[in-house]
Amino acid sequence: MKYRTLGPEFEVSALGLGCMPMAGVGRNMYGEASEAESIATIHRAIELGVTLFDTAEIYGPLVNEELVGRAIRGKRDAVVIATKFGFRYDENGMTGVDSTPANVQRACEGSLQRLGVETIDLFYQHRVDPNVPIEETVGAMGRLVEQGKVRRLGLSEASAETIRRAAAVHPIAAVQSEYSLWERDVEADILPVVRELGIGFVPYSPLGRGFLTGQITRREDLPEGDYRRNDPRYSEENFDRNMKVVEVVKAIAAAHDASAAQVALAWLLAQGDDIVPIPGSKRRATLEDSMKAADLVLSADELARLDQASPRGGTAGPRYGEKAMAMTRL
């Protein structure tokens, strides 16, 4: 495994592990997961040198953090734990956003308990709350740093303006947003701002929710109940158009005796040393395949071919439905 820095003096593995598929999302996201295999996947990731593990309060809610906590017991010194707050929820699931200072404190206390740690290494605001000034939220997050409960702060899916305002209140170590060959909008304004401010960037869904792996060759391959059946980019009218970039990814993968997933991740890693993707996995086989991307070097010609095959704005369909899109870039 190779290593990178997210902001000053914050070294992590070049590829992290997104833990969302492991627990609490069930059939509605990426299919069923085995707790035993999920925990074995986290242990294998640690063996491979992965240090950054990403979870969130809303995954479940709560049970994903609990699983990660069980998995890292006795291994705390080997891991960097990132988790997120910012949603309201009840027994039926998410009901809205809440980044009030009181909820920031409440969420942190709960995450610490579920994860079984004394300090959260990276604490993200999961989505910007339009009803609470970012200065108030980040001020509350900063007080958690003063209390020793959090080491570093992050934002997820924030706009460039919000990132600037947040960084003026307290140092921001990382911004997490969707970024991949089929979602490149962050290149316009988010990446320039985080680089200007010395903030690391953590792409989630770096494999296009599985699309860029090439393992889903038609929409019918998705299991019944899989939420991607409602994903605009997986829709009948967009699926075939979006497969064109996968064909290029597969061709380059074949030349390297690599997987399509490895090529898609290697392309992201080549976009800058401040970029640390977090591919999600719930199985050791998938994890081991993805992590090989850290050692895959693409030529300038191959990178150019990928850029040409999937230019910014070239993917058919929005990346989320209308409701979820309304919660991004605030």
Automatic annotation (TrEMBL):
| Extent of the signal sequence | none
Instruction: Show the CDD domains listed in the entry.
Output: AKR_AKR13A_13D
Residues annotated as domain NADP-dependent oxidoreductase: 15-309
Q: Which UniProt keywords apply?
A: Oxidoreductase
Domain of life where this protein originates: Bacteria
Where do the coiled-coil regions begin and end? none
Q: Which stretches does the entry tag as region Disordered?
A: 308-330
One term under GO cellular component? cytoplasm
Q: Name one GO molecular function term.
A: oxidoreductase activity
**Record protein name field:** Putative aldo/keto reductase
Species of origin reads Sphingomonas parapaucimobilis NBRC 15100
